[in-house]
Design a protein that fits this description.
Length: 332
């Protein structure tokens, strides 16, 4: 048995003592299903608060500046119901994306006893993360903010103060979609309100003074336009990732090496929760829940040591992922 270094960030482990797995703390007893997940990150919490504040600001301007003072009650009622419904769904999706476990790998299971219990055969390897002391299943990556390895991690989003992964990608997609819709709706209403105020007396088209009304509408217009562009791009990126079954991290690491994709429609159904229905757009319905990987799923088969070295050399080009994995290999 020997230790072979491939590059600065990753190593091939040829003996169990290299990462000192005996220092790994055994994983705690799993909590009950549905236990709340929350990341204590000051930047993420601040971004989440700002997100809610901006949505509530838009709510205030739409209701108290544009709809309530309007004399067209049908127009006010219809737009008020639509905007409030979209805003509620957006905030509900935000909460679900923020408070849902994105697919964290059990922490601290890379113990010496557990690795030996896998009884690796010639050509078999397991990937171990020294940062959270866990054995990583395929397509899992370590997040330095969550301090956990996340299955099918796409990226860490500070606006939802959470990683976007296997279990909460649906909620993140819904969040970006509903924010884009309320931004577009707000822009349209601001445009109609400006036209209405230009045609009539400014003092009659709002309960606020004309200067205050103009400032509030301009701020809302700027906010809506900015978020419409941002969330539309994020929504399109996420839909593309779902349809190609390739996360943002995998796309960065792959470069010019194509990988096998599953059927597009199958990946969409897995993420959204089954066959097409209204539940796809419901932030309170759960997506497809994959089974937790068994011990056999943690073991990967390679034809030769060079395959492992080649895989790791490709991954070193990703500046975003520097999780210093090691691989347990059994010589033939």
């Amino acid at each position: 048995m020997m230790l072979i270094h491939t590059h600065h960030f990753r190593d091939i482990e040829r003996k169990p003592e290299y990462l000192q797995p005996e220092k790994c703390v055994p994983p705690p007893y799993p909590g009950p299903v549905g236990t709340m997940w929350f990341i204590r990150d000051s930047c993420g919490i601040a971004c989440a608060i700002v997100t809610w504040f901006l949505v509530l600001y838009a709510e205030f301007v739409v209701l108290f500046v544009m709809l309530i003072p309007s004399r067209d009650y049908v127009y006010s009622i219809i737009n008020g119901i639509v905007f409030n419904l979209l805003a509620f769904l957006a905030l509900a999706s935000h909460c679900r994306a923020m408070l849902t476990d994105p697919g964290a790998v059990p922490k601290g299971n890379a113990t010496k006893e557990f690795i030996e219990s896998l009884q690796l055969k010639p050509g078999q390897v397991v990937y171990k993360c020294p940062k959270c002391c866990s054995i990583k299943p395929d397509r899992a990556h370590h997040c330095s903010v969550c301090k956990r390895c996340i299955r099918k991690m796409d990226h860490h989003c500070p606006w939802v103060n959470n990683c976007v992964g296997e279990n909460n990608q649906k909620y993140f997609v819904l969040f970006t979609m509903y924010i884009a819709l309320i931004s577009l709706h707000a822009l349209i209403m601001v445009g109609f309100h400006f036209l209405h105020c230009f045609e009539e007396d400014w003092t009659k088209c709002s309960s606020f003074s004309p200067p205050t009304t103009v400032i509030l509408l301009i701020l809302l217009c700027f906010e809506a336009l900015l978020f419409l562009i941002f969330t539309s791009v994020m929504f399109g990126t996420q839909v593309h990732s779902i349809c190609t079954d390739e996360t943002g991290i995998e796309r960065l690491k792959r470069k010019n090496q194509p990988r096998e994709h599953t059927a597009n429609w199958s990946s969409v159904k897995d993420t959204c929760g089954g066959d097409f229905s209204l539940n796809w757009f419901n932030p309170f319905s759960r997506p497809w829940q994959p089974e937790m990987p068994s011990d056999k799923d943690l073991v990967r088969q390679v034809s030769s040591l060079s395959d492992v070295e080649s895989t790791q050399t490709t991954e070193e080009h990703s500046e975003e992922i520097k999780d210093e994995d090691s691989v347990e290999v059994l010589d033939e």
